[in-house]
Specification:
There is one protein chain. The chain has about 475 residues and is mostly helical. It has a single domain, classed as Na+/H+ antiporter like fold (Up-down Bundle), CATH 1.20.1530. The N and C termini lie far apart (about 65 Å).
Length: about 475
């Protein structure tokens, strides 16, 4: 790497990091999801604004190829790995056994119907104009179905935390349903991405050794490998959980010259925990690459099972890893997502409006149906339907992974990202309005029956 390339890499990372944090903080002050601000920061530096005003400077600072582009791509990949690792950790932390019947019914109905409608959409509407260079229509079908059905845990949990309802039964149901949905959909996403990873330019690992090609054989292989990898990871997580539960607690190293260098029997310090966690995430990602499935799937499962295997009283690895992940890698990742958006040349307003409306109606209607089937009142079911419609981070990750794998083109990539952004903003605005109208209780207000559960007190127009 020459000095010029090194300068461009440092300058581009600095600008992306500053833009992501500044815009993220601005959006947080406006009571909007910071992730949308981070994407906006990258959007301002991309072809939609900077490239429009100074195309030569923008192209020199953010080249599409070369060592500087490779450096940005590496940070981008590490960002998505850490994001999915933290998402897995958060899923286990928020899962609740309360309202089990309602959670299962809402999850099944709210996932199966949108997924099926997404499959039907591809058959009814000609989407050949948005298929990517990979030319795999089956993978495109799975991606669109997941984009319709997916729900964002990080964004909706942040919205509910900001609104002061994160500790309510409503929040527990929303997050528990989202956990079940996203675990299943991540398996489907891994299959879709794996199907386009075995071509002649990417012949590597188990698919190449086994001669896995395309068609039904590729679908069966990647589905089987994804499920088996999930089962093995779950088995390891369960085993570690039993071992740590049986291990007696040992006090951490106290202050002194040997602090941070644990003796025999003492638990390692935070620095060692971070190193071990990141090494496991990278190892799982590498294993997935060898198996022909997306590395983000391995990072997600490691996060899920790490939280599962953590014993009582042990420090939370999320706290150790979250600092540098959310301070640098994840904001830069979302800024690069915004950098890739081209609202000048790759934006189809009609496609964006039509797909967003379709996804919103199908997802919200199915969640509402599942909630009513589970015995929820009309106002409560409506609040659940809007909250579960937020696609946020997972929707954006799905779009970027599919775009990087050449399953979708730039136009559909822009549509999917904007759909995730719009639905997240809609969810935040709706829930804030529901709280003002007394249709949702805040934390600590559930000792009396929530207003939303007393249908006789609900205004007629809200029913």
């Amino acid at each position: 790497m020459t000095d010029v390339d090194l300068f461009r890499l440092f300058a581009s990372l600095m600008l992306l990091l500053l833009a992501a944090h500044l815009m993220g903080r601005l959006f947080a002050r406006l009571r909007q999801p910071p992730v949308i601000g981070e994407i906006t920061g990258g959007l301002l530096l991309g072809p939609s604004l900077f490239g429009l005003l100074a195309p030569g400077a923008q192209g020199w600072l953010f080249p599409p190829t070369g060592p500087a582009a490779t450096g940005l791509a590496l940070v981008y990949q590490l960002g998505v790995l850490l994001l999915m690792f933290l998402a897995g950790l958060q899923m286990r932390a928020v899962f609740s056994r309360h309202d089990g019947r309602a959670v299962v019914l809402i999850a099944v109905v709210g996932m199966v119907i949108p997924f099926g409608c997404g499959l039907l959409l591809v058959r009814v509407v000609d989407l050949s104009s948005v298929v990517g260079e990979a030319g795999d229509h089956t993978a495109l079908t799975l991606v669109i179905a997941c984009a319709v059905a997916i729900t964002s845990i990080p964004v909706i949990s942040r919205i509910m935390m900001d609104l002061g309802i994160a500790g309510t039964s409503f929040a527990r149901v929303v997050l528990s349903v989202a956990v079940l949905e996203d675990i299943v959909l991540n398996v489907v996403i891994a299959v879709a991405l794996g199907m386009v990873g075995g071509g002649p330019h990417d012949a590597f690992g188990a698919p190449a050794l086994l001669g896995v090609g395309t068609g039904d054989g590729a679908i069966a292989y990647h589905a089987l490998v994804s499920v088996v990898f999930f089962g093995l990871t779950a088995g390891v997580g369960t085993l570690l959980r039993r071992r740590t539960a049986a291990r007696p607690d040992v006090p951490a190293a106290g202050p002194g010259p040997t602090a941070g260098r644990p003796e025999a029997g003492e638990r390692p310090g935070a620095g060692v925990q971070v190193a071990v966690q990141v090494a496991v995430v990278l190892g799982a990602g590498g294993t997935c690459v060898f198996l022909g499935i997306t590395p983000m799937y391995g990072a997600f499962l490691v996060g899920l099972m790490t939280s599962w295997s953590r014993g009582a009283g042990e420090p939370d690895p999320m706290a150790a890893v979250r600092g540098f992940a959310t301070g640098f890698f994840i904001p830069v990742y979302f800024a690069i997502v915004g950098l890739k958006l081209d609202l000048v040349h790759a934006f189809d307003p009609l496609l964006t409006v039509a797909f967003t409306a379709f996804a919103c109606v199908v997802k919200a209607a199915s969640v509402y149906l599942g909630a009513r089937w589970a015995g929820r009142p009309r106002a409560g079911a409506l609040n659940l339907a809007v909250a579960m419609n937020a696609r946020g981070g997972p929707g954006i990750v799905l779009a970027t992974l599919a775009y990087d794998a050449r399953i979708i083109n730039a136009t559909l990539f822009t549509t999917l990202v904007l759909t995730a952004v719009i639905t997240s903003l809609m969810a935040g605005g709706w829930l804030e309005s529901a709280i003002r109208r007394g249709l949702l209780p805040r934390d600590g207000d559930e000792e009396r029956p929530p207003v939303a559960d007393r249908t006789d007190k609900i205004p007629a127009g809200a029913r």
